[in-house]
Design brief:
Rossmann fold; 38% helix; 17 strands; 477 residues; nine-stranded mixed sheet; alpha/beta
């Protein structure tokens, strides 16, 4: 009798040979790559997609924009790199994008947009937010199993079902080699996608076995076990997945950025960018980059800043970010980002810091590069964070980082050597570390330089190699 198969749960895929033929891949995310800004009448005038014709005549920032968020910032650079290297061939990407054209071509990728009726969208959004809140430890109520039998959950399941059906239809046309499903919103797709072809799932948010409500565990375990491999973002999450009782294979691949997407503007250019956003020449500031969401902990940053502001009268706190796809008018339409910003602005007024705290809203990448280049430090104050790619972005600009210990990226930080770690529930501790960095330019330079070296572990080059080997491994098994 042959021995039973061995489950592998490792920090990286085995050193399998790279694929020898281009892989036909179907990707699924909730968040779309692009949000279309044009009115419906202009969308209707778009030419039909033919061959490799991309978005002809459309202008970024006017007709469309990239969706904010780490998932999209990761997935597209990976696809682009694997297309360029010949690892990928035909690539189709399915996402929830109710105001977009049903199908467009963009840089060699065919984008397919799913839509839901408004009532179904509202129910789907409520379930998604319930799962999000529970996993991040934000819900005060103890969720129960009844959610899986609620009318809201039926619409959550409906969205995943029609997504799986669309993937099957495309598979009949393109004969995909494998499917790659991303993030918790799409988790049921694996069970609904009836195919013998390999299915990979990437869990992007935190995975803490203790945070998952007990009544949910059996259902979530069944969903996870419907995939050939589950990919998580840190070694800590890999251990939690094992403690959860996951019986399938799992891998850790660090989230990543493409350094070529970032620039190092000259001092003059950085100063001009800062002036456009209301910062005077050479004015020192602490930078926080993240969408407006209670989970991102901007309130902690404001309280810590208030503790040091009196000792550094020129220092500013700059909060960059707007809403996510879930809070966008062209997305799920949730209002939490605007509500959270209003609460933060009220907190700033109460502390008498109106002239010291700057809300920029969303800024483009070139402006963000200028803000990174000029800041004294970058701060990630999240209550809980799946990883925290903004830390890597700060490192690419050789900036010191202050990072919540509840972020996945914290496992890469050796406190005082390549960054500093703090407890987000202790603003006084955060203020102490902010003050330590403000008092020492040499410490800031040393941590920034060491962080730039650490950032190589989160580069697109490292990730593309790991993902390509994983693809080859599952196709060979």
């Amino acid at each position: 009798m042959a021995p039973p198969p061995t489950r592998r749960n490792s920090a990286a895929p085995t050193r399998a040979a790279l694929p020898t033929e281009p892989i036909s891949l179907c990707i699924n995310t909730q968040t779309p790559l692009l949000q279309f800004l044009m009115p419906p009448q202009k969308r209707e005038l778009m030419p039909p997609m033919e061959g490799n014709t991309d978005l002809v005549g459309l202008v970024e920032g006017v007709d469309y924009r990239y969706s904010p968020g780490g998932v999209t910032r990761m997935v597209f650079p990976l696809v682009r790199r694997l297309l360029e290297s010949g690892v990928l061939g035909e690539t189709d990407w399915i996402s929830l994008n109710p105001t977009a054209p049903p199908m467009v071509r963009f840089h060699g990728v065919t984008l397919h947009s799913m839509a839901l009726e408004p009532s179904r969208m509202a129910n789907y959004a409520r379930v998604k937010e319930s799962i999000w809140g529970a996993v991040h430890g934000l819900d005060s109520e103890d969720p129960d199993e009844a959610m899986f039998w609620s009318p809201d959950f039926s619409d959550y399941g409906y969205y995943n079902r029609i997504t799986a059906e669309r993937m099957r239809q495309l598979d009949a046309q393109h004969d995909f080699d494998l499917f790659y499903i991303h993030d918790f919103q799409q988790l049921p797709v694996g069970e609904m996608l009836d195919t013998l072809k390999p299915k990979l799932f990437r869990w992007h948010i935190p995975f803490d076995e203790g945070q998952i409500p007990r009544p949910w565990k059996e259902q979530l375990s069944r969903y996870l076990n419907s995939y050939d491999v589950v990919v998580v973002s840190t070694s800590g999450y890999l251990k939690e997945l094992q403690a959860f009782g996951h019986t399938g294979e799992a891998r850790r691949i660090y989230p990543y950025v493409d350094p070529s997407d970032f620039s190092r503007p000259s001092p003059e250019a950085a100063e001009a960018i800062c002036r456009r956003h209301g910062l005077s020449a050479e004015q020192p500031f602490v930078l926080v980059v993240g969408r407006m969401d209670p989970m991102k902990g901007q309130d902690r940053a404001i309280r810590a800043f208030a503790s040091v502001a009196g000792d550094y009268p020129e220092l500013q706190l700059v909060l960059v970010g707007n809403g996510s796809f879930s809070s966008a008018g062209k997305g799920l339409g949730l209002s939490k980002s605007s509500q959270w910003r209003a609460e933060l602005e009220a907190q700033v007024r109460l502390l008498g810091l109106e002239s010291r705290v700057l809300f920029t809203g969303h800024v483009g990448q070139s402006d963000l590069d200028g803000l990174y280049e000029r800041c004294e430090m970058t701060l990630l104050p999240s209550v809980r964070e799946g990883f925290g790619l903004v830390v890597v972005e700060g490192w690419l600009h050789h900036k010191p980082v202050l990072v919540t210990r509840r972020a996945g990226v914290a496992e890469l930080i050796k406190d005082g050597r390549n960054g500093m770690v703090f407890d987000p529930e202790q603003p006084d501790g955060l203020a102490t570390k902010m003050r330590k960095l403000l008092e020492s330019a040499s410490l800031r330079r040393r941590l920034g330089t060491a962080g730039a070296t650490t950032a190589r572990q989160c580069s697109i080059e490292a990730a593309a190699l790991a993902e390509a080997r994983l693809f080859a491994e599952v196709l060979e098994s």
